[in-house]
Description:
Low-confidence stretches: 1-66, 250-255
Mean pLDDT: 79
Strand content: 25-35%
Distance between the termini: 26 Å
Largest sheet: 12 strands, antiparallel
Shape: globular
Number of strands: 16
Oligomer: single chain
Order of helices and strands: EEEEEEHEEEEEEHEEEE
Amino acid sequence: xxxxxxxxxxxxxxxxxxxxxxxxxxxxxxxxxxxxxxxxxxxxxxxxxxxxxxxxxxxxxxxxxxxxxxxxxxxxxxxxxxxxxxxxxxxxxxxxxxxxxxxxxxxxxxxxxxxxxxxxxxxxxxxxxxxxxxxxxxxxxxxxxxxxxxxxxxxxxxxxxxxxxxxxxxxxxxxxxxxxxxxxxxxxxxxxxxxxxxxxxxxxxxxxxxxxxxxxxxxxxxxxxxxxxxxxxxxxxxxxxxxxxxxxxxxxxxx
Length: 255
């Protein structure tokens, strides 16, 4: 994730549950006020959202014949909606690194045919992929599933759930994190739900003002996404997994 140097605020707060973990760490808040005339990148009044059905990724080069054509073949039984929860390593039973066609097939079985499908194209990094990778972005309402690789050998690498992509009547809008945060919740809900984790507010040069959630102030990024502002009643517009190009290597067994 490309992050600009404007650091809006850091809020380190106490939280008891993220994927079943307990924490009693406390913290302090350090606030830096943005100028009132600051225009945040990603303001939906002026910026197109890559992958929205009406737009294309700037500089996108489509790879002919790869994905984006026909229908997705459903795979297996529908996933119970109670099991569809966003987490750092995937969504519900769909884990990062799984074969893309299997993941898309399970989602087609659960939600029907997608509303958006870019097909494979040479990525510029707009979806968190490394520039130059072959990437495909498939959407169900506001949910975007990102796969990297070639047709027949691609892997599921990340997701983004963002109200700005449209399709908010889709049942995917109601997918929550393991701890219960949903898009459309308020920033005050974010800070209450993740009390005990570290929440940092930064400006991403493509997305705009975002929250970043870590287990502690020096920990790995777990989830992030756009917010309207840092005010308690501001909306959390999106919840994203870590960008695939930023995903750290798993720790050694004895680490």
